[in-house]
Amino acid sequence: MQSTGVRILVVADEMLARAGLASLLTDQRGVKVVGQADGKSLEGELEIYQPDILVWDVGMGGVLSVFPDDVPAIALVADGTVASQVRGLGVEGVLPRDASPKLIVSAMTAVMQGLVVVDPSFAAALSTPRAVSDSSEQVGQIDVTPRELEVLRQLAQGTSNKAIAYELDISEHTVKFHVNSLMTKLDARNRTEAVVIATRTGLIPL
To answer: What's this model's pTM, rounded to 2 decimal places?
Structure first.
């Protein structure tokens, strides 16, 4: 184990999964595995180890409600359904369980720079279309413009402002304007809360 580097807390409900994941990451440059925890003991372990980031083997789901909102995380998931669930909780990095250690470390670097990393294999699960009739009804109720709805859908996929600007062929300043407008209309304190509220009201799919 290295003496310096990004401090990782490995989380998994199964002891063997924790030990295996910790072993894989220990040999990677620039990182330091400072401890291991399961979902139930996570809160206490966070105080003890004070990690920079979590690497969580979520598998088929488990206790998802205990994801902390003040520590960035990489979730290793079994399928698109769980990928969608953890993104809905605001988890910044979502990778398959068989991701290589190098891929996990690369994703960690991106997440700690404020980016969102989602493996392409989960793209379809995170962009399921919804019924047109439901869309029209809810957009009318909340008075969201078509452009704001496009931005909202991108936010739900964890897309950065810069990437949204590129995707929609508008300036980053315009994206920020739309995001602020959405937060006001949805009475949300941040982007994540805006997505949660929009999901509950039917503006975007679960």
So the answer is: 0.59
